[in-house]
Amino acid sequence: MRIVDPNSIYRTVAKAKINRAMYLVDILRKNIPKDFKINRYLDAGGADGTNAYIFGRELNANEIWVLDIQRYQTQYDNVKYIVGDIRALPFENGYFDLVTAISVIEHVKERDKAIKECCRVLRPGGLLFIQIPNLKFPVDLHTGMFNPYLLPSPLRRRYVKAMGHEHWLEHVFKVSPGDIIKEAEAQGCNLVYTERIIYTEELIPNKLRAIYNLLKRLKVLDVMPLGFVLIFKKLEKCAGGN
Questions:
Q1: Residue 212, SS3?
Q2: Fewer Cβ within 10 Å of end Cβ, the chain: N or C?
Q3: Is the pLDDT of residue 117 over 90?
């Protein structure tokens, strides 16, 4: 296992990942009270911990956790790592002040369980920050292919197989902001802010920048953003008494 010196973060991790995390944490920072204290923070489905490290550093969190279904070789100092499932978080009720799930929920088939768990481990008054892609956007940014969910259902599987991504439909599940809001509010986490994501050019993969910039100039992104950020606050008393 290789421990990354935070001072060398720009030398060890793709700069785009850092910039993306900074873009997202700025959204959160602008929409929480200045006196909101974040002692314990969890990034659920946080992979190598890049988002957790940036969020934790920028928000002055004292205890930073990353949970993912696999262990990554690259890890950051001051970040605690645990292997686990977002649908069954190994933490007690109300443990965290902030939970983030960034580009994660769309990969979880039992989405309702994941959201329920994220709400469960939040303290009353704690914040849940969720970022999801816009699955109506014409291009899938992971693969660069045309978004299969815009095709008629009978054609999707044949298309992704022809494009060499036959497992895509088993790893990316259709989800909308409305789905997330409904499921989070059922767990006592009320929506306090939402924002459409329109990344700057440096956050877009090189192979997609030309088409992205064209869509931006045509103002397509004003009505069809890349994704969404949703911020929820847990009520004092939530579903199930948590």
A1: helix
A2: N
A3: yes
